[in-house]
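TL;DR need structure tokens for one chain.
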Amino acid sequence: MSADPHGISAHQHDMSAHRHDVRDPGPDEGGPSTSPRAWRPLLAEPSVSGLLGDRLVAAALRELHILVPPRTALHSLRTFLLADAYARTHGIHYDRAGLFVATAFHDSGLTRGGASLRGGFPGRSAALLDRFLAGHGVDDVRRAALTRAVREHMRPRPARHAGPEARLLHFGAWLDVTGRGGRRLPGERGRLAALAPTPWFALSFSARVAACGLRRALPSPPTV
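>> reply
TL;DR here they are.
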């Protein structure tokens, strides 16, 4: 068991290569050539480029520009890269493709309108992710782990018994927005921000979260 302060075990099973029960992407789907230009430096990172042939990842990428606005999409991609860098540095095995999909959805509840939902915008994000995963034939156990990661990512600290996906998403999201945990990955946050800059994102994003109050989704498309 890892002694890491986030409590992430280095002995978890990597589910990246498991069958996902969704169709293969076409030759022009889910890759850098069809993605927004601002995403391409992040999609070219080895941790992401190695996943682009995964069917579930390709489907999530097709959804990402619909789920969240451009700057938040870049935050989602950086969140995955920071989480993965931490996992690789500490020898943590986890569901890589699943976490990529979870990071794509983790802030979707901030921007998708609708009635109030228990759990605030993280709960809404988790519900949107669960619908997506169920629609692509993902099994209940995997869905539960990934939706928990999204539902709990706004907690001050990961829950004591959270799995590696929940702990890694929490680490990556908080590091990208606030810088918390940066000492564990020296220079990585700045490197990724230079590849895909979103000036003042932390300020505008935090203001949007405060406006949402963790209670409801804001109905109008945001600019962050």
